Amino acid sequence: MRAEFADFACASFPAGYHTGKPFGVRRMFDDVSSLIRTNPPALHYGAAVTDFDADGRPEFVVAGFGGPNRVLRWDGKQLWDIAPRSVADPDRQTLSLIAGDVDGDGREELYAMHADTFAGPKTHPDRLFDHDPTSGRWHDLLSHPANRHGRNAVAGRSVAALDRRGTGRYGFFVANFDRPMGYYEMSGDGRLVDLAPALGLNLCTGGRGVWAGPLASDRTDILCVNEHGANFLFRNTGLGTFLEIAHDVRLADPDEHARGVTVLDADGDGRLDVVWGNWDGPHRLMLRTPDGRFKDRATPAMALPSRVRTVIAADFDNDGFEELFFNNLGEPNRLFRRTEGEWRLSDPGPATLPHGAGTGAAVADIDGDGVLELLVCHGEASEQPLALFKSAAAGHNWVRFAPVTRFGAPARGATVRLTSGGRTQVRVIDGGSGYLCQMEPVAHFGLGELTNAESVRVTWPDGAEVVLRTPGIRATHRVEYPRG
Predict the structure, then answer these.
(1) For residue 65, what pLDDT band results from cuts at 50, 70 and 90?
(2) What's the gap between Cα 469 and its chain centre?
(3) Could you give the angle at the alpha carbon of 188 between the alpha carbons of 185 and 194, nearest 5°?
(4) pLDDT band at 433 (very low <50, low <70, confident <90, very high)
């Protein structure tokens, strides 16, 4: 695959972009990569965020390609790699590590997508790492003899964790490449099985990026953006099965080659819209129309083709409005802010990384100060260190919500709506997004100069709801699943 990206073509940017000069606003990020204690050049692909060691704080989990996977834990001063050898798995080529509680024990497992080939059957099937509370060790559930027929043994790219029935137990949707999509879930007798054929998910094309959440229904749907064919939007029927409707809602985009995808309320109307990047093609900002379909409203600067990988939506500066970060391979990264109702190119500062071989990226408040960190991975074209960035956030207020399932694990796919200051912000607890990646399982809201949050509504994948009145700001609130 690396040969595919040997030559870089730099897109045309406004004067000053490469040098970090401002575009009428201060630069967004400072480089804090020195906080990573050990950070050698390497090939890294996807990144995820999960509470790996069950201490109540998140860790970055980074996929190593021909080298060890990494688990980066904040110790109060630096990020240390705490990956046990079983999870580091240094002899495999890992593209994606995605977390989800597949067995309902209240602790997330890690699905590892491997890629010793990039199309067709592969030598090393994927793994599913599970923590054994008795021994304290992590082991691969998919190496158990009962699960060997349920392993994904073909080349894939992105993975997403989803609770398709609202039970609190998650399955993993796998975007395979030139082979049918897979969906792996634990059966009643404890076996991992591929249910994609039974659920209507086993379509075939060049699978790339995946996002899971309530986009076409009030349950967990699956958006899979592809190359060599149309995108897929699998609408949850409410019965746990799916219908593919991308063409019907104008999200198919069959002539482009997608990579990263994310979802946000891009126009402030309270409804979820879609952003994805197309490889060397026009990027899309798909706003929802009154009839429930979507229309591309990307500005020329946003649509400008690039060798895009991960696309992230997050409120990095806590001003109450999400930004969009496009992570590119071999050319400058881009940052967009919505000001005066328009999405405008902004200055990422050192996160521009004009020569970065960008692959995955993920966000989390890794140090617990209420300001998001952005971890950018590099690889594929050349070995490079990880990069870590943070916004000064200008003293803005914030509040965070961490819904959990009935078992106590992160409720990925839950929707959180915060109302304050005459407007409503919406977030979906991430099951998988960007490209090869997964963000922290927390709804992070910047508040700008506001000093209170009026109300918060949390909706779980099964439709259960909780409303919180005037939750305290500058805090992270754990929200329990409603009982009775």
Answers:
(1) very high
(2) 29
(3) 30
(4) very high
- H runs (alpha helix) in 297-453: 300-303
Q: Which amino acid would we find at residue 427? A: R
Task: Give the pair of three-digit tokens for residue 439.
Answer: 């963000």
**291 in helix, strand or coil?**
coil
Beta-strand ranges (E) seen in 258-333 are 258-264, 273-278, 284-288, 294-296, 308-314, 323-328
pLDDT at 103 (0 to 100):
95
Half-sphere exposure of 240 (CA within 13 A, CB side): 13
Q: Tell me how far the alpha carbon of residue 417 is from its chain's centroid.
A: 19
What pairs with residue 326 in β-bridges?
Answer: 311, 334
Q: Which pair of structure tokens corresponds to residue 471?
A: 């939750």
Contact 260, 434 (CB under 8 A): yes
Q: How far, in Å, CA of 68 to CA of 62, rounded?
A: 9
pLDDT value at residue 118 = 67
Three-state DSSP class for residue 393:
helix
Q: What residue spans of 166-235 are helical by DSSP H?
A: 196-199
Burial of 150 (0-12, 13-18, 19+ CB in 10 A): buried
Per the document, the length of the chain is: 484
Rounded Cα–Cα distance for residues 409 and 108 (Å): 7
Distance CA 398, CA 470 (A): 13
Pair of tokens at residue 272: 């979820």
pLDDT of residue 31: 97
Give me the chain's average pLDDT, please: 91
Contact 152, 141 (CB under 8 A): no
Look up the pTM and report it: 0.93
Q: In what order do the strands lie in the sheet with 138-140?
A: 94-100, 109-114, 127-131, 138-140
Task: Record the tokens describing residue 292, joined without a space.
Answer: 């429930």
3-state secondary structure of 142: helix
Residue 130 has pLDDT above 70, yes or no: yes
Confidence of residue 200 (pLDDT cuts 50, 70, 90): very high
The residues near 408 (Cβ < 8 Å, ≥ 6 apart) are 106
Closest to 51 measured CA to CA, from 62, 63, 59, 43: 59
Percent of the chain with pLDDT over 70: 93
What 3-state class would DSSP assign to 15?
A: coil
Each residue of 9-41: b (16+ CB within 10 Å) or e? eeeebeeebeeeeeeeeebbbeebeebbeebee
Confidence of residue 153 (pLDDT cuts 50, 70, 90): confident
